[in-house]
Structure formats: C-alpha cells, structure tokens
Input
Amino acid sequence: MAEFYSEKIAKSPRIDLIKDNMLKEMPQIEADRAVYLTESYKQTEGEPIYTRRAKAFYHILDNLPVTIRDHELIVGAATVHPRGCQVFPEYSFEWVEAEFDTLATRSADPFYISEETKKTLHEVYKYWKGKTTSELATSYMSPETLTAMEANMFTPGNYFYNGIGHVTVKYDRVLEVGYSGIIKEIEDEIAKIRVGDGNYCKKRNLLDAMILSCKAVIRYANRYAQKARELAQKEGNSTRRAELLKIAEVCERVPEFGARNFHEACQSFWFVQLLIQTESSGHSISPGRFDQYMYPYYLKSRKEGMTREQAQELMDLVWLKLNDFLKVRDEASAEGFAGYSLFQNLIAGGQDEHGNDATNDLSFMSITATEHVFLPQPSFSVRVWNGSPRAFLLRAAELTRTGIGFPAYYNDEVIIPSLMSRGLTLEDARKYNIIGCVEPQVAGKTDGWHDAAFFNMCRPLEMVFKNGYENGKQVGLKTGNVEDMTSFSEFYSAYKAQSDYFVSLLVNADNAIDVAHAERCPLPYLSCMVDDCIKVGKSVQEGGAVYNFTGPQGFGIANMADAMWAIKTLVFDQGKYTLKDFKEALENNYGKDMDWHKGEKLTVQVVKELAKKGKTVSDADIKTVYNTIIANNCTKEQKDFYAKMLADIEGLPKFGNDDVNVDAMAREVAYIYTREVEKYTNPRGGRYQAGLYPVSANVPLGAQTGATPDGRLAFTPVADGVSPAAGRDVKGPTASCNSVSTLDHFIASNGTLFNMKFHPTALAGRHGLENFVALVQSYFDRKGSHMQFNVVSRETLRDAQKNPEKYKSLVVRVAGYSALFTSLSRSLQEDIINRTEQGGF
Amino acid sequence: MDYSAVKGRIFDIQRFSVHDGPGIRTIVFLKGCPLRCRWCCNPESQSYEIQQMTLNGKVKTVGKDVTAGEVIAEVERDYGYYKRSGGGMTLSGGETLTQPDFATALLALAHQRGIRTAIESTGFAEFSVISKLLPHLDLYLMDIKHMDSDKHKAFTGQGNDLILANAQKIARSPVKLIIRTPVIPGFNDTVEEIGAIARFVASLPGVEEMHLLPYHRIGSDKYKGLGREYTLAHIDPPSQEHMQKLLQVVEGCGLRGQIGG
Output
C-alpha cells in the first residue's frame, strides 16, 4: 500500500495577489506573434516548409516581449497583458478581421482589441490571403461536403480555423534531459541516417528544424533569466530581489538541461506548456499525469528540505500560469467552446503501467491547488478504479462540493480495455490521460485528432422528414417521401442511410483539413516531443506518432432515442398519428411561435442576403421579415391537434428514467453513429473512433435544428453528451445513471460525457460525500466512462445572471470543462440552469 | 409462500433517498396511517383510499395498487448503489404497519435479494403485527413524538401508550432501533419535552441514537391540493440555535444525537 499525505495544505498569500491582478482586466488581443511570424515567412519564401516553420518559431521566440509579472516565481508569459491572446494567421484570419469590431461586445468570450492592434493585424493579414490551412482544406473538400457543412449537418470548425493541439507530449523526457538532451537524441538519429536513404531529404530537413526549434526555446528561457537579473538590480525589496535571482538561476538551467529539483521541474514544465501553444494555436494541450512525472522531483526536493507548503505554492503558481493566456475563436466557435477555455486537461490518480495504484502526495496536492486557485484551468480530472484509495475519492468529492465543476471523474475499468480495443498495448493503455474534454489517449505517443467535428445526430432525422431537401438544395440523400413509409424499420433504415451519408462527408471534411495541416503547418517543435517522430522522420501532422486517430463527436442521443421511441409507439405500435402528422407538426414547430432570439438572428441573415443582392431594405420591411419568421400560421384546429400530440409525446417514457425499452433504443441509435464512424481511416495511417460529447455546441447547434419528434421545439438546445435531455430525467440520479450506462461506452473510445447537476444540500456532510462517491463508483461499476458535476443552486446562478459583478469568479461546469459563468452567452447560461437538478430535497 | 404476489397500496417510490437510513436508499411509501399528525408533510399518505390531489395546477391521482413483486423489481434496479453506499430499501408511509402482509412481503423479498431493509414507523400497532416484520428487518426508524399521552392524542389523534410499550419490545429484539423526533414548535420543542423523550430513549436497552427532525412546511401546499386546511400555517420552523440546544439535551442523556435524518 502506497503512503501519501492527504491533508489540506495552507494557501500562500502570493496566490491571491497574482490572481487578483489577473482578473482585473478584460482579456486582450496582442499582435506580436502574428507580426514576427509574418516577418519570418516573408523572408523564407520558397524554402522547405519545416525550415519555414522552425525559423518562424525562432524569430517569434527571439522577439516576443519578455514579461515577468509581480509576485511570480514561475515565469513565462505569452502576452504582455495577463490573460491575453496571440493570433495565428497561418490557420485562418478572415473571421478575426470580420469580427474586429464585435469582439469586445459579443456575448461569448469577449476580447478587447486596441485600434493600433487592429491596424497592425490588418497589415499582417494582407500577406496571408490564399496561404492558410483553412483555405487549402476548403479546396480539398468535395462539393457535397461543403453543402452539408453549410447546412450545419456537422461542423469541423475547430481544426478548420485553428491548429490541432489535442496532445500530451513527453513532459517527463524534457524534465529529465532538457532540450540539450533532446537535441542530442536528434543528432544521434541524424548520425544514423544515410544521405542515400529514400526518405533522407525530408527527414533530415525535419530533424534540423527540430534542433532549431529546441535552440529557440533555450534562448527564450535565457531571455527570461536575463530579464530577471535586470529586474533584480532595480528591485528595492530584498526578498523579491532574492526571488528574481532565483528565477534567473532556474531559467538558466531549464529547459536547456534536466531539472534538479521541484522548482526547476515546475518551471521547465511551464515553458514546454507555454511554447507548444506559441508554435500553434491548437487548444487542449493537456498536461496529463502531472502527479506522476513531477513526483521524482518532488521526492528529491522533499529530501533536500523543501516543505510541503513550498511545494504547494509552486504547484499553485503553475495552476495560475495555466490561466494566463487565452485563445480567441470566431463567434460561432466561441459559443461551441464557450468560456475562454483552453482545455488543458490535467489528471491525477489511477494506475501505473503495471496496474498498481499510482496515487501519491501530488495527486492530493493537485486537488488542493485547484481549490486554492479556483479558476477554469487546468481542466482537472481524476482517474477512478476499483483500487483507488478511499481518501483520494473523498477528497475529490470535497472539491466537487465546492461547485467548481472539478474534478471530472474517469473510469479506468472502461477506458483501459476501450483503448486496447483500438490497438494500444496494455502498458500504454494503463498510462492513459485525458485530452481536452473527455478524450483518452497515451501521452507522448498519440496524435488523436480528438474533437475533430461536431456531428448533430438530430439533423439526419430532419433530412428523413425532408427527403434530403432543404432551403432549395439537395443536402442529404433522397430516402423517399416519409409519408409513404409503412414500417418502423423502414423509417429507421432511412435515418441510418442519412446518417451514414453525412458521416462519409464528415470524414471527407476532416481528411481534407488533416492533409492541409500536414502540408502547410507541420510542427517541428511539438513533434520532437512525440514518439516516434524523430525515428520515422515525420511530423505529428504527417503521421509521425505511434498511435493516430481521428475522433469526431456525436451528440443528441437522448433526443434521438426519445424521438425514435415516439415514432415507434405513436405511429407504428398505437397508430395514433401518421408520419404525415409528424412531418407537418415539425414543419409548424408544433404550432408554437419561434423563439425571438432565433427570430432576430434569422432576420439579420435574410436582410443581409437582400442587401447583398442590392435591394434596399426599409425598417418596415425588416419588421415584416421578422414577424413572418417568428409567427406560426396555424389554425386553431391545427394548434389543438399539435397540443394533443405534444401531450401524448410527453406521456411517453423518456431516456434517463431507467426504462429498459427506451434505453435499449438509445443504445441502438448511438451505434448508428459510433459503428459507422469507426469504418474509416485518416491520412495519417490511423483510424476513426467516435466520441459522444458536445463541448458546449449542443446550444448553438441546437439553434440550427428544427423541431424533433421527441417534442423538442425548433432551435432549442439538444441534449448534451450522453446525458438525458434537460429536465426529462425525473426519477433521480440513480435512474439517470442506469439509463446512461446502458449505452456502449467502450465503443465510444474518443470519450463520452455525462453531466449531472446537484443541489449543494445533496453533498452536505460526511454522509453526503460518502453517498456521492458511492454514486460515482456505482455508475462506473455499470461501465459508464465519465461523469462530471455542477453543484450550485439554481438560485445562485439566477443571481449571477442578474449581478454578474458579484460573481466574477463563479466557475461552473459547462461540458468537458469548467468556465467562468459570467463569460458564457445567455443561452448557454440558460442551458446550464435548466439541466435537471438532483437531490434538492 | 409466494411473497411476490402479495398486493398492497403505495403512493410513491423515491429512489436516491439519502436522508432515511444509511447510504443510498429507495423509499417505498405505503398508503394509510392511523395517526393524523397536524404537521404531517405527506397528508396524502394518511387515508388508505385512492385520492385526487391538485399540485401546481395539475391533478394527480395518489395511490396505486401493486404487487410486492412489482415494487421489488424497481427497488432492485439500484442494487449496485446500495452495495457501494451501505444503503438499501426503506418502507415509509403512511404507516407501514397498516399493511403488515404487504410490508412483510416487501421486506422478505428484499432480504432474499441481499438488500438491507429499514422501516420508518411510529410503531402504532399490536406487537404481534410488528413481530411479523422483525425477522426481515435491519433497522427500525421509530418516531416518538411526545411523552405526554394526552398531548400526543391532541396533536396526532392517538395516545402514546402502545407506541412506548412497543419501543421497549423492539429495543429487546435483534433489530437496530433509532428513535426520531419531529421538533414541532408549540407541541414538543421545549428543553423539558425533548429531554423527557431523550431520557426514555436512553432507558431503552441497546438504543444509542436519537435524531431530531426540525419542523418544515414543505407539505403545506398538499393540504390545499387535497381540499384540507393546514392548521399549522402560523408556525415558523425552529431556529438553528434552538435545534443545537435541543441536540445538547439529547447528547446530555448519553445518546448520539443528530439534526435531520
């Protein structure tokens, strides 16, 4: 039995001083990276792409402002202003430019951008026209794919506009040997290859680019050392002066060389973490098993006299740093990934590669750091298995009880076999960590392309009712007139045909983007920290990783299960309604008016279209358009008929209530997506694997989905992840867990996401914690894969909507991550408030 | 005997209940009660008859005839949660003892499945009725509301003699007994009244625990929904400080006390 120290450790006053400074200002966009990138690119026209990427990285790191903030011990800032944001025009830029003037006022993730920065970026962007990954990807896509994307059947927005990210590198290796050691490894490989080898040219070029990138990082750290010495000279306070000199000493050592103690290890970690996110804009750069790879340095420093309080302070500082920069996304993506989140997933606990429990002091201190810092980063997770120490689970439950939405709980007993079914070795599978929201993989060996697209499972059903035809275009397959279908199996097959068709187009979109990244943005720096890129001489983007996947995620299972059940029982079993009735009811939104918010958005679209065609639009015209859009034109008879229909639908059993039949339907419907996805392969030599989670896209993508046969009204959110539809699970958390665990979580090896909301009273007292842990374990016994919780009362959230200034640091669980509640759009706030609240009695 | 076929009348099954016995539990609410406690938060439980109740503008039928087999099938759905949490099934009401055959069947079926059992009951029945249940029972959560029989009768419709006598008998059985007292301002919330109950509880052989359940108004809407008058509308729930004081009284008698279930 391992021993560990599980008590809480006091918070250093330094933590709140830094945090307060951090939250003072609105996040800001800075142009430096884009400027230096572009300068370098202009000078390297015509050179090999690896060289261009490495030289640009070098140029950026040699010129980015070096910023040491007050009170810091762990240094390295992407931006001059705290929580700032650099931009990455090599991936896409049009949307940033188009949204310059609305960035500061939009509802999701607003950013400040100065007039000067706008001007600078405007100049920079001139260079990038026609050179981005996004543009190249588009040209690789088939016309049907573009039509389907335009119709929002799925959205690959994430990688279409940004870098890939979604990776955990070999932090352990950098900590151990430093970049000088990695350069040596690359040089050894160069010594092995021969100039006559078939792959020599590209491999040699990539290896040289890797060395240049490592050197860039070493120089960057040394600039910090120099800056710290300069500040120390000017510093009047002797304590701070000593701290600055210490910073200088540490940055001279790491990450060039191996870390000798915990402080150096923390600093080395942070440079790696920061600079991966400077090389590329990809998010979900996940620290993974921090408690494991940092542990040897912790032990060594403890032996040398470091106190637990000192270790905790350093960890807290790393946690703060993970919140010190942000990503700007286009408005639509910002709603889908709302909350400024970077999804840097850090996980504690679980097993080692031999199957022993790996919980240690740092696993507990990670929980304490999350409590101390109380910010959305890192996205904190814990691994749970049948050998998890009770003390660890109860301590994790205490963190849950704070309402921060951390940790997310992951089930080793599902994830390990699930990963093995995808070809990982037992040892690798046991070492898994989580990327981004909920996606499991093994660190330093995987390019998972997790989060590859959102697939809205309700849209193919709409296509069945519309025979694939929408807004004047053939978007889907012609599966026949729905009125003519005479059996449930015929209807079901039509849905499967539509769904399969859109999956094939989704694959086309993802593969096009994949190829574009390999051609235009290979990443030498990232690649030198992922096996086997050095050995095979391929970047991560070209399939250099040991394990390659593409993981697009489906969502809306609950709506689909309830919808299929409604059709099966009301149309085919009971004969109460016809498919024609349903078709008309859906077209007429069950006789209900449309949501005004959606009405406004559609009106803007229509008016823009008219203006584009050169028509003048008066205020009166706009009013007419708006009224036509939101009003329904149903007769009283129709309205009464639809009201009865809705009541009949409401009376049916729903997914989430432990109803054996509906749950079985959900399992089958999920297979339609998951089993189809895994038939495909990607350009990196890997295969597709499905996930079932929505990030926060169930809200904006729900706003593009018409009414569905489960009684869901047009343009309202669809169900998130594998959770029951909001408010429909009424039999309590155990029934809800039983339903969700009916789904096959093994096949969704790219992760599943189950949201639960508890009233704080449900976790009160020691018994509350015990019962909570028992609930998690029982769900996991039934082979659920992931669980996460919001523990905050509805009243608190309502009050936060009314008085956002009082709740600046209220963190809530959104989807596979937590975010500041007040930074979320109103509709996402509503979605969170409307999730069924358990145990409020 | 085929317990599964035994019929009974319930008005609710509540899963993930964490305040009525240890761990995660499923509570089966049986319909019908011989007492008429004025503060009762489940007034729809009192009559054995199936009734209509209006809540939030919706008319709801209260009461359903079921077999013990049907009920246990639903209870068994959460078996894993009971095992992980040390929970099980709790029969509540109404008064469980008004349907002794049905209650016995449910408890026996639960034990056959390895599910631990509890009842919430005021013990108002001949002991011969109670003794039928005891072999299938792990925990008896028994209400004792007042030591003064006349006052008891005035507020609940029944005296307390039978209840107190049964408490002594149950205490001597192998079943674990915990006494619970609803704290109702104006009825039993003085230090003296709670003290009297606590002293009695302390005198019961093997009984170590007493829970004080502060009065709340959660059920008041239901009276209106049943067309009845709620006679305690003027009463405020006891303050936290007062509850703490009463808790000290309980603990002063050598008992482990607890506020809430």
